[in-house]
């Protein structure tokens, strides 16, 4: 259903872009240039250039804006505002990129053409979107479409929340797959309407198994101390919609907003740390920077690989399993900077004057040369240029015992460089990992493209000065 609705939006957006550009072209020719509208118009190069470039440009703009994400949950008012904003940005771009070199006899004509395209494109785009969104909303409200949901809580408040959701004037689409307990006891009435699936220790497995999209936290007053633990667990389970009963708002970590129009009032935790367009730009920047870096640094790759091979026996590259986005393991690649069998006694962190590090490996670490194979991880999407450094599960288990908030870092992709990496470099013990954690948590609170740019600038400065640790 999600894919089908997304395709509908894209097809109607493409059609709107084609029709609005054609309408603009004919309007300019007939009303502004007073050219007869005959068959020769179809041979105009600018018409066909626009028909090829303009629709693609609009789809890129909408993708960056996040228009094709979670299309089953679109709100009509937000759809209106998003379409208006995108239309203004896109129309301005079209006039500057495609029409700026037109011969202008009257600026009034330019303004008329601008307003014509603005109005035409908006109407042709928004009307189909509104119809699709309204159709989806109708399917939800009539219970033809729903979203797999999990109730956290097993007593009176959980049952009352279930009744509120079921009896509200406008159905919100929650299809409960079951509930989990917090402290053990269960309200019999709740078990009569949905199955008991386990406890909060089983959250990750249950969410994966049942394809849960939304979690409702409805715990009793004496269970409130568990909310932080629940939220930390949920933050590693993907882009869930997390709602909590309002009386526990003082315990919530992160960005929140109150939703109470038409539906039962909940505090909704926003798991997206940046605007959708910033996520899109960040991923595009990751791809572009990685491709450019791998191309420009290809001679460095070759020379480094040769020196690693000649300076000590063993493979050139070193691949190690790390834990990344939403707790998923992946293989991180580096140039080998240690002698082979460096961890035959078990996992161990590097430290100053570490005898396991080769002489050339020590140089590579100072200038971060050993990290450049990770551009391949970035290109594949398992890492980003900027993000908290990924760790092995062995050390994560030790960190979490002392600092459970470490799991919050799994809300974002790990990175080649990070705020903590700039501050501390390679951590030589768990204490330093926990100290570095403070800065990585600050990154989550201040995550933006501007912050990423600052971290990259400081990373380059460290590399040039050879201050890497």
Ordered list of secondary-structure elements with their pairings:
Blueprint: H1 2-32, H2 45-65, H3 76-97, H4 107-141, E1 147-152, H5 156-167, E2 174-181, H6 188-193, E3 196-199, H7 203-210, E4 214-217, H8 227-234, E5 241-244, E6 256-259, E7 266-269, H9 276-296, H10 298-311, E8 317-323, E9 329-335, H11 359-366, H12 374-380, E10 384-386, H13 393-402, E11 415-417, H14 419-424, H15 430-445, H16 449-465
Parallel strand pairs: 1-2, 1-4, 2-3, 4-5, 10-11
Antiparallel strand pairs: 5-7, 6-7, 8-9
Helix content: 40-55%
Strand content: 5-15%
Q: Order of strands side by side in the largest beta sheet?
A: 3-2-1-4-5-7-6
How widely separated are the two ends? 50 Å
Helix tally equals 16
Number of domains: 3
Rg, nearest Å:
27 Å
Q: Please outline the major beta sheet.
A: 7 strands, mixed
Average pLDDT value?
Answer: 85
Shape: flat
Helix and strand sequence:
HHHHEHEHEHEHEEEHHEEHHEHEHHH
Low-pLDDT stretches? 248-256
Structural class of the helix and strand makeup?
alpha/beta
Number of strands: 11
């Amino acid at each position: 259903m999600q894919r089908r609705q997304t395709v509908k939006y894209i097809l109607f957006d493409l059609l709107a872009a084609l029709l609005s550009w054609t309408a603009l072209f004919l309007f300019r020719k007939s009303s502004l240039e007073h050219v007869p509208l005959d068959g020769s118009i179809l041979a105009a190069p600018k018409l066909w250039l626009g028909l090829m470039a303009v629709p693609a440009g609009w789809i890129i703009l909408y993708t960056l804006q996040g228009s094709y994400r979670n299309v089953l949950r679109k709100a009509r008012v937000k759809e209106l505002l998003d379409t208006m904003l995108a239309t203004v940005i896109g129309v301005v771009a079209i006039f500057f990129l495609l029409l700026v070199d037109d011969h202008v006899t009257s600026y009034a004509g330019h303004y008329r053409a601008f307003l014509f395209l603005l109005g035409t494109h908006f109407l042709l785009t928004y009307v189909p979107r509104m119809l699709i969104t309204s159709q989806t909303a109708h399917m939800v409200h009539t219970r033809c479409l729903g979203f797999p949901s999990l109730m956290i809580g097993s007593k009176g408040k959980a049952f009352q929340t279930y009744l509120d959701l079921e009896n509200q004037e406008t159905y919100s689409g929650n299809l409960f797959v079951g509930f989990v307990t917090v402290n053990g006891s269960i309200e019999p009435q709740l078990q009569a309407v949905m199955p008991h699936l386990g406890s909060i220790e089983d959250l990750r497995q249950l969410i994966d198994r049942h394809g849960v999209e939304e979690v409702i936290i409805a715990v009793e007053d004496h269970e409130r101390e568990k909310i932080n633990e629940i939220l930390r667990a949920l933050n590693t389970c993907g882009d869930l919609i997390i709602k909590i009963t309002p009386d526990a708002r003082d315990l919530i970590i992160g960005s929140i907003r109150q939703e109470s129009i038409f539906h039962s009032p909940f505090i909704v935790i926003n798991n997206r740390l940046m605007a959708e367009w910033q996520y899109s730009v960040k991923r595009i920047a990751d791809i572009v920077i990685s491709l450019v870096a791998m191309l420009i640094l290809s001679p460095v790759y070759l020379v480094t690989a040769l020196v690693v091979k000649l300076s000590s026996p063993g493979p050139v590259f070193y691949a190690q399993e790390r834990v990344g986005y939403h707790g998923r393991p992946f293989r991180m690649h580096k140039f080998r900077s240690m002698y082979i069998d460096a961890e035959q006694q078990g996992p161990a962190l590097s430290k100053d004057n570490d005898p396991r590090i080769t002489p050339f490996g020590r140089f590579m670490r100072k200038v971060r040369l050993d990290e450049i194979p990770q551009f391949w991880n970035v290109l594949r999407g398992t890492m980003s240029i900027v993000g908290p450094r990924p760790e092995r599960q062995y050390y994560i288990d030790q960190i979490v015992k002392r600092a459970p908030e470490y799991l919050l870092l799994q809300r974002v992709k790990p990175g080649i460089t990070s705020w903590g990496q700039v501050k501390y470099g390679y951590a030589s013990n768990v204490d330093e990992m926990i100290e570095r954690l403070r800065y990585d948590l600050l990154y989550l609170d201040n995550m933006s493209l501007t912050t990423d740019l600052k971290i990259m600038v400081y990373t380059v400065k460290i590399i040039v000065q050879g201050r890497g640790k």
